[in-house]
Model the fold of this input.
Amino acid sequence: MKRKLMQLLFLSCLKATEIIEKRLYFRISFIEKLQLKVHKMMCDACTLYDKQSLFMDRAIEAVNKKESAKNIEPAKEEIDLLKKRISDKLADTGSSE
Amino acid sequence: MGKFKKPDIAGWVESFSGELYSWALYKVSDPELAKDLVQDTFLAAAEKMESFRGESTPKTWLFAILNNKIIDHYRKKLKQPVNKDNQIFSKFFNEDKRWKTGNVQAEWHEEESNLLDNTEFLNVLKKCLDELPDKWSACIQLKFLENKKGEEICQETGITPSNYWQIIHRSKLQLRDCLESSWFDAFNEPLP
Done:
C-alpha cells in the first residue's frame, strides 16, 4: 500500500519532464498536476527545466516570426520564374494527354 | 481534352502563384519545397478541373488543395523512423530515471526578454532546430505554424497523442542541450 502510494505520488525526473512537455500541448489530469507539483517541490533540476522549457517555446516562436518576416515578400523575379516553371509543366502534361 | 480548361488554369497561375507561394513558404520555410508544393497544387487542379464547380472561388479552391499538400508533406515526415529515438534519454538520465549529475544545468543568467530580441541568439536556436531529426522538427513546427491544440495536430497527421508529446519531450531535451553548448556555455568562465 505504502509502496503504491509512493509510486503514485513520486515521479522520476524523466516522467516529470515528460509531463512538463505534455502539459504545453495537451490537457493533463488532476493526478498528473499533483504529481508534478510534488515533484517540483523536491527537485530543483526539474523546476529549472520547466522554466527553461517555457522559455524555449517563446524563443521558437520568436525564431518563426523572424523567419516568416524574412519570407513574407518573395522577390517578383522569383515569382515570375515560378509562374513560368508551372506554366511549362502544365503545357507538358496537357500535350502528353 | 475538350474539358481541359487551359485558359482558366493559365490565368490562375498568373493571379495566384505569388500568394500560394508565400503561404507555402510560411508553412514549410523551405523555398524549393514551397515551389514544388505550389506546382503540385496547380498540376492537381488541372487534373481535377471537372470537380471545380465554382461553389468556391478559384483562390479558395487552390488554397484548399495546397493545404492538403502541406499536411501530406508533414504526414510523410512523421512516418520516418528516427534512430536516435531511444538513445536520447540515456544521454540525460541515469537508469533510475533521475538526471545525470552532469546534466543538472545551471540557471541561464540572461534576461529572457533580451534574448528574444537578440538576433545572434535566435540564429543559434535556429541552427539547433535545424539539427533535429526531420520528424522531430516537423512536430515542433506543427505546433507553432498551425497554432493548434495537440489533439487537432494529431488528428490531421495521424500521429498518436502520446507519440507526439514524447517526440516533443525528446526534441526539447535535445534543444536545451544544444543551446547550453552553443550559447550559454560560451559565456561561462572556464574552470581554472
User: Anything to note?
Assistant: Chain A has a mean pLDDT of 87. Chain A has five helices and no strands.
